[in-house]
UniProtKB/TrEMBL annotation:
Name of this chain's protein: BAG domain-containing protein
GO terms, molecular function: protein-folding chaperone binding
Organism expressing this protein natively: Pristionchus fissidentatus
Gene3D superfamilies assigned to the protein according to its UniProt record, in alphabetical order: BAG domain, Phosphatidylinositol 3-kinase Catalytic Subunit, Chain A, domain 1
Residue ranges constituting the BAG domain according to the UniProt record: 111-197
Amino acid sequence: RICLVVEMKLKIACGTNNFDLDLTADGSPSTFGEFKSRICDELNIDSKMIRVIHRGKTLSGDDSDALDKFAFKEGDKLLVMGKARAPLMSDATFHALCDFEKKTLVGWQKGFDDLEKDVNELEKRFLDPKQHSEMAKRIEKKLKSFNEAGSRHMEALDAMTMNTPGSNEEQVKRNREKRKELINGIETMLNQNDTALRKVEELQRIEAEGEKAK
């Protein structure tokens, strides 16, 4: 994934509850929606009732907005106001979703970090034409495999039932919100991957035209 800032930690405060949120750690939020969801999970706040105040102003925007929109700085303190979630049962589905995120999606996203570095190196054109072409083909194959894996992850999430036997309405809602958060994250990564794939395809096109002109 693309890091928005370098070594940035925010201080989150809600009453007597405080924690630091590292925006550059693996699995850290990159959109406003993910940011609010992380805070809600840490503080057990209802996602529909949260207010996040930064430098005296309540943050607002679409859940898909990138966090760099808010111009956070290292050490910024954010005040959170909200309503506590209703007590929830220990739910197998919710735990399964969290496990899927940690064991599958975090590593999958890290794979894109490596691919993006490869694409950036390819754009510098340090290699001779033959090596450049071979590297472009390898990266293209990996980017397409990344897309295929993302589609499988989406299918796996869609196949999960959100209603664990004995779970209440609030828990089912929470499960659906968590799944939606994960799906949104996958869609964001796939869009970034498609952008990288188009770059590689354009580089291959330019390389092919250069060979024809010789």
